[in-house]
Amino acid sequence: MSLAQQLTALRSCSPLSSSRLSKPFAPRQTHKRTLLPIVASVAISNAQTKERLKLKELFEEAYERCRTAPMEGVSFTVEDFNSALDKYDFDSEIGTKVKGTVFCTDSNGALVDITAKSSAYLPLQEACVHRIKHVEDAGIVPGLREEFVIIGENEADDSLILSLRTVQYDLAWERCRQLQAEDVVVKGKIVGANKGGVVAVVEGLRGFVPFSQISSKSTAEELLEKELPLKFVEVDEEQSRLILSNRKAMADSQAQLGIGSVVTGSVQSLKPYGAFIDIGGINGLLHVSQISHDRVADISTVLQPGDTLKVMILSHDRERGRVSLSTKKLEPTPGDMIRNPKLVFEKAEEMAQTFRQRIAQAEAMARADMLRFQPESGLTLNSDGILGPLTSDLPAEGLDLSEVPPAEE
Q1: Element housing 309 (H / E)
Q2: Cα–Cα distance between 54 and 71 in angstroms, integer?
Q3: Claim to verify: residue 139 and residue 110 sit in the same structural domain
Q4: For residue 106, what are the domain limits?
Q5: What is the DSSP string of 329-379?
Q6: CB 100, CB 170: distance < 8 Å
Q7: Which of 28, 97, 258, 393 lies 20 to 30 A from 40 at CA?
Q8: Are residues 269 and 342 in the same domain?
Q9: Same domain for 336 and 265
Q10: What ranges does the record give for the region Disordered, renumbered to this chain (predicted)?
Q11: Residue 117 belongs to a domain
């Protein structure tokens, strides 16, 4: 282009305004700010891609090594592994007892480590000889080490099925045999009934108590969920026969009741002629005439069913299982059982001791009277009322009992 043409072009351009000329030119920064995040993102993406490629190469190398030479660089061979398993293997036959440690529980049972090739499982119904809702109710928690019995195998995963109930069942029978040999009284809870008797649970086992072996006249419905004192009549594990007797247990308890002893009981029922008192599983009769020295017209004004009180044993018929009781003999003063029964119970042992002393005095006098008429027996009564041989300080003809006062009631 010639110089004349350039000048002509400059003349044709529009003049710049003053506002545009007053502001300095500044390049736009928007493009630069947008470009920086894009560059950073590309860098991160490249780093992740490199990491993925590196992992991929490692995986491919490991896969190839496992495929071609899986045992290369490993000193523990497959033969060594099988040998170790055989070393710790055990007899997994049904009925075999094994030691195991519980390591996990759930609502249906527990997983048990028995150091075997396969796992072992303890179902809920095999966890205890008693009926439970969860294995933890029987104390089965992770970390518990116990002896189990193998009772089966789950074909789906070759796991063994264990039982604690079987072990406890055998121990319960052994315990019952021991208690029978020692003639011990045990407590049994009545859980069922049939035409011939009731079913009681003892040591986790169900035993049968015939109605003929129950001392009370209670019905089966009245006995349900109650505990009765029982003795073993027959313990036969092979026949699964466990026969119990409440009558034998009650007779044993009654044999320990001494005349004049004070026992605590509860009122079971009221009758016009007296009150029946339960004294540790034995029903005794507190006759209306033995409640107080004062006349009792209405027993319900003195006693109510459920009341707890102290009574004294007057007599008991072991053959018939009848026990006669008294609170009258425990009154410090006549009528206290009606006016202040609390005082009667507080002084019960003291008043019973006085009663026993009177009985002993009466028996001593009876023996002395016998000796007065039989001096040839060579026996006499000392000052303590004890029968013994004649001594030098006593006359040969016996004691003079003419001045002995009669025993008071």
Answers
A1: strand 308-317
A2: 24
A3: yes
A4: 96-168
A5: GG-SSTTHHHH-HHHHHHTHHHHHHHHHHHHHHHHHHHHHHHHHT-GGG-E
A6: no
A7: 28
A8: yes
A9: yes
A10: 384-409
A11: yes
Per-residue pLDDT of the chain (409 residues; tens, 9 = 90+): 544 454 444 444 444 444 444 444 444 544 445 555 555 556 667 777 888 888 888 888 878 877 777 666 666 666 766 666 555 555 577 888 888 899 889 888 998 988 776 678 899 988 888 888 888 888 889 998 988 988 888 877 778 899 988 888 889 999 999 999 988 889 999 999 888 899 999 988 999 999 888 877 778 888 888 888 899 999 998 888 999 998 888 766 655 667 788 888 889 899 999 999 888 667 789 999 999 999 998 999 999 998 889 998 888 776 666 788 999 999 999 999 999 999 999 988 888 888 888 877 877 777 776 666 555 555 555 555 555 554 544 444 444 444 444 444 4
> Structure tokens of 220?
């089966």
Tokens of 151: 């009772």
Count of alpha carbons within 13 Å of 343, Cβ hemisphere only?
11
Q: Is residue 266 part of a domain?
A: yes
Between CA 103 and CA 116 the distance in angstroms is 14
Instruction: Indicate which CATH number applies to the domain containing 100.
Output: 2.40.50.140
- The C-alpha atoms of residue 167 and residue 175 are separated, in whole angstroms, by 13
**198 and 121 together in one domain:** no
Answer whether residue 265 is part of any domain.
Answer: yes
Angle ∠(330,334,337) on CA atoms, nearest 5:
60
3-class secondary structure, 173: helix
Compute the distance between CA of residue 261 and CA of residue 313 in angstroms, rounded to an integer.
6
Q: Which amino acid is located at 349 in the chain?
A: E
Q: How far apart are CA 9 and CA 24, in angstroms?
A: 25
How far apart CA 324 and CA 134 sit, in angstroms, is 49
| Residue 351 neighbours by CB under 8 Å, 6+ apart | 329, 330, 331, 332, 344
Task: Look at residue 190 and give its three-state secondary structure.
Answer: strand
Q: What's the whole-model pTM score? A: 0.46
Total domains in the chain come to 3
DSSP 218-287: --HHHHTT-EEEEEEEEEETTTTEEEEEHHHHHHHHHTTPPTT-EEEEEEEEEETTEEEEESSS-EEEEE
